[in-house]
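From the shared-data thread, chain only:
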Amino acid sequence: MGPVIALSVFVLIVILAIVTLVRTVVVIQQGTIGVVKRLGEYHSVRPAGITFLIPYLDVIVLVDVRETPRTGDRQDVITKDNVSVAVNATIFSQVVDPQKALFEVSNYFVAVDQLSRTTLRAVFGSLSLDDALSQREQINAQLQVQMESVTDKWGIRINRIEIVDILPPQPILNAMALQKTADQEKRASILQSEGAQQSAINVAEGQKQAVIKSAEGERQSQILRAEGQRQAAILEAEGRGQAIATVYQAIHAGNPDAPLLAILQLETLSKFAQSDNATVLVPYESAALLGAAQALRSMIAAAPSADTGK
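Structure, as tokens:
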């Protein structure tokens, strides 16, 4: 029996040594904080890495300090206008004070979950269904503010809250679908009428521009015609001036005497007399020539009569 007892004692000693070593040296993983309790009381907080404890006196509790998302179960809440909707949300929380998380609340996971349920009921109870469906961002912010006012004393920070689903009853969904269809038809009618109005405006604007362009074209045409008539009159006047100058120069170069000028005037007056005009204007200078011509004509007509009498 002696060797058996000795072997048993040796095995017990080895087991005791191993247990003591395990209780003395602890490896804390990254993202986790160790909270040491000595004789049941809070002693210290140990960071990630290797830490040493007093065996059988110290107990370490590991606390995850990473951000943890937790999606709550779907629950029915009553809105301000007495509509029951099914809601669930995802809460992103993080332990910032491990001591408070362990000693201020018995189980902070359950506490946060229950707090989220009561807060959801309170927030949705203050909103109508339309507001609850259209103001998710405001609801998320309001939930976060109300929950943080409680979780701060637990050493837990609520980073954000996201509403996952808001499901009204089926009759409400059907009514909303009908309302949405009516709104779409209304918007389609408005857009169609606006399109017809814009089309009429575009047509009127086009006609206006066409009239303006036509008026501008007519104005430009009149300007061009007037400019052409002006140029034609100028050219005609210049031609007449050049013709008169040429005739004057030719007559002046021929050095005409008074009898020749008188004959030319008589020829011109004879052309006037042959015209169909009832009235002929005779220059004052030519009146003497006409008198002289009439006297000469009378003398020529009287000469044969005198010769006959003889």
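The first helix runs from residue 2 to 24.
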